[in-house]
Amino acid sequence: MLTRRFAIIVAALAVFAAAAAPSLVKSQSRPVVVINLTSGAEDLHSAWMGLSLARMSLEEKRDVVVFLNVRGPVFASRSKGANLAYRNHPRFSATLTGLAGRGAQVLVCPLCARELGITEKDLIPGASFATRQSLFSRLGDNTVVFTY
After folding, report:
1. Is residue 3, in this structure, part of any structural domain at all?
2. Considering the entire predicted model, what is its pTM?
3. Which of 60, 73, 94, 117 has its CB surrounded by the most CB atoms within 10 Å?
4. What are the pLDDT digits (tens) for 39-76?
5. In contact, 72 and 37? CB cutoff 8 Å
6. Residue 69: which residues within 8 A CB-CB, separation 6 or more?
């Protein structure tokens, strides 16, 4: 008898949770791909893979957010990242500017940037310091995050 009551309570909670869940998550019309780029100059291959996925996501008509954090802000710095490139590929700064020009949102963690000595004035065209609103407003029920 106790097992049956427990099952009824669990079922009722599941129904309530399913009904409440949609109101807790932002509904999106297009899929959003977030590239969470934490790698820096020490791992150019990982960083390049992340930006390549961002490019492919734009080609697939996804909304794209590139979030540069931890060591990643160096790629959006005019001074510190100006000459960084992976093998024979274009410079990271040019790639990020190009992604932004095609509609990607390039957000830089301000605390991480400051830790690396990067100011907002030092950011490349198309990149901006992330705010709570600019980052969290892009997350919803149709968001996928890839970390590099």
Report:
1. no
2. 0.81
3. 73
4. 999 999 999 999 999 999 999 999 999 999 999 999 99
5. yes
6. 36, 37, 38, 108, 109, 112
Q: pLDDT (tens digit, 9 = 90+) per residue, 86-116? A: 999 999 999 999 999 999 999 999 999 999 9
CATH code for position 96: 3.40.1260.10
Exposure of 28 by Cβ count < 10 A (0-12 exposed, 13-18 middle, 19+ buried)? middle
The total domain count for the chain is 1
What sign has the CA pseudo-torsion 56, 136, 145, 130? positive
Domain presence at residue 4:
no
* pLDDT level of residue 30 (50, 70, 90 thresholds): confident
Q: How far apart are CA 93 and CA 78, in angstroms?
A: 8
Range of the domain at 84: 26-147
8 A C-beta contact, residue 86 and residue 52: no
Question: Over 80: is that where the pLDDT of 117 sits?
Answer: yes
Count CB atoms within 10 A of the CB of residue 38: 18
User: Tell me, what's the pLDDT at 29?
Assistant: 77
Listed in sequence order, the residues at least 6 apart from 74 whose beta carbon sits closer than 8 Å to its beta carbon are: 40, 41, 80, 81, 84, 116, 118
Does any domain span residue 79? yes
